[in-house]
What does this fold into?
Amino acid sequence: MKRKYLNTNTKLALLCSALFLMFASTAFGLHYDGKCRSCHTPHNALASEVPLWGRADAVMPAPYVQYTSNTINATMGDPNGISKLCMGCHYKSTGYGLGQDMRNDHPVSFTYDAALAAADGRLWDPETTPSGIGGSVGDGTIAQDMLRGVDHNQLECVSCHEPHDKYGYGRGTGYSDDPAGGDGLAYLVKLNDAGQLCKTCHRK
Amino acid sequence: MNAIKKYITSGLVIAMSLIAINVAFAADAKHVFYPSDVKNPRIQFLTAINGEGFFSNGSSFGNRFPGYNPDSQREKAPFGQTYGLASTQDELFICDVTKQQVMIFNFKTSTISKFGVNLSKPVSIAIDKDGTRYIVDLGNMKISVYDAQNKFVRTMADVQGWYPVAAALLNDSLYVVDSKNHQVVVMNKNSGAVTKRIGQPGEAIGEFAAPTAITVSDQGLIYVSNTHNGRVDVIDGNGKFVDKYGDSPNVAAGSFARPKGIALDKENRLYVVDNSFENVQIFNDKKQFLMPFGEIGNVKAGLNLPMTILVDYDNAKYFSKYVAPGHEVEYIILVASQTGANKINVFGFLKQ
It folds into this structure.
């Protein structure tokens, strides 16, 4: 009897991976210039240099840690953890801004849980409300599908934006080449016609 | 009798609390050195400038507690978002993007003045020998020129369209980093006429990917922070490639993941801010890695998405009160962060 090495599902997964890699460069081409390394910095490909200054037996030339969440006292609007990766480029002093004024942008890096929803009164409870994203993400709650952090209760840039454009919504209709313009609604996790992305969390 | 006992007890509790506070502040007052493990460190964290209260001890509590640490003061008029930094004798120039102005901190008179008309996003400033100020206004996509008396002179722009993010002066030219077209635009500093465009998008030598910062050495070489290529390129005044620091983005020490602000001291030591590592790395003129410095988070010397850097010899003397006993500062290094509690961290380069 012939031994079956790969079942149909595995084959399908491999095919999808191959197709993904083939088209990946096109998709990522929309986000900067197709360089994964803009965000996914290679690790340990090079030996760390030993600093000349400092005692040789106590120097710290280990690979650096990127964007740890050490800003314990982060207040609303101070990007934390994963959102810092976005803020490194999408900020006021770069051409790749987030609209003219960050005060008009949505806050990130804050706790969005049932307590906040109850206190606010105009937010859906993220722990019970479906995200409606669907697709490969599945049909989980807002907390499961969109919120980050170990407790799945942190709203970050990637709650609404998927930088690899996995869902294929591209740069969004509001994109403008003008750093002062554009609505920055790019690479969304779901369509925002009639504001349904906003309405995922906001009750009117 | 019992009442008296109670009073004595509460008195003791209060006294002990004060001692505890004192000890806490004393611990906070510990100096931060780099390297931290040697007898003769090279750099000391001095203080943070977080707003207009810097000169006025802007604390709502005053300095009435023993062992009170000025670093813990609450800033009454905090900066918005500070980016471009420049200095002249007695004066520090700070671009505030949110407040859409340039602030001048005069250390001699302990006063602050502001200038800038219709600025949208002043992200960088270059000051000529005669005091002319070139403000890079990314929002308006223009260079706004002001004279030494802070009077508006004219604007300059590249008609082809650009994202001007930083500028440096060399002879009669203003070298402007354009992060849209991934190039350096050379303009006549008086007429604004574009005389040359250096580089093109890409990874190869002579190519840039989202460059963000520029500085010029005393020898007339131009250093460009080639951010997404993970290196700092050195070119001559004509745009010819001379050398590079780093190779491609990497997290190894001595490499860069997202190099942003750069600065040189008089010995041509290169300071490179890394927005991703949230530190600053120093290299000597032979490109040897000297050391990193800066902490992560809202702590003393903490850098939160650091962006720009300035080496300032002129105003180091005004920071001597922060220098640890037994040390002297040769120059100060100012690092501006995008977010976090410390807007501009001031470090001192210690005399050996």
Q: What stands out?
A: The longest helix of chain A spans residues 8-29. Chain A has a mean pLDDT of 71.
